[in-house]
Amino acid sequence: MKLLKAFAAAALLLISTACGGNNKQENDMKKGKTLIVFFSHAGENYAVGNIKVGNTKIVADYIKERTGADEFEIIPEKSYDMPYSDLTKLAQKETENGELPPFKGAVNDIEQYDTVFIGGPVWWGTYPQVMFTFFKKYDLNGKTIIPFTTHEGSGLANVVEDLKSLYPKATITGAFAIYGHEVRSGKAKVEKWLESMGY
């Protein structure tokens, strides 16, 4: 009798473990396929000096490593490699004029993605204008959008409001901001944010 009870308990444990695994698989399937879209500025940056890899790219790579998501980097056709003071003036001009600078490349089959992380530095109160060129080209309504920014004091600025205005039928959630000067030693902070969303 004792042997029978032990066998039954072991079988129950195996079943509950298997169900737990299935629940995790179901949760992963609910998230669907994920894309990370980002613009990152190398060269002279405020607080971190002249850098070869932009702050936002480092965060995007952390996300990719954790989630296995695809990446699309928005690379402008024109160069933004200039002294920081000149860049701020150009960013102001582009924002005030509502410019839509062209970028290189394209996302193949945007429809396959259910979740899109969108990241960039904060330039003049929002994402850089070249990102708005991307937003105009691709309809992300109906998707889950997770915004993130790198900054030196602006936080999320107006990016959440701008995305809600552009994509009123999208679910905008989990917005995250990190100081640019923290990025290189801030992997754990990014991972904690991702973990809070189930990644």
TrEMBL record:
Residues 1-20 form the signal peptide. This is Flavodoxin-like domain-containing protein. GO terms for molecular function: FMN binding. Keywords: Signal. It comes from Hoylesella oralis ATCC 33269. Residues 54-196 form the Flavodoxin-like domain. PROSITE patterns: PROKAR_LIPOPROTEIN. PANTHER family: EXPORTED PROTEIN-RELATED, FLAVODOXIN-LIKE DOMAIN-CONTAINING PROTEIN. It comes from the Bacteria.
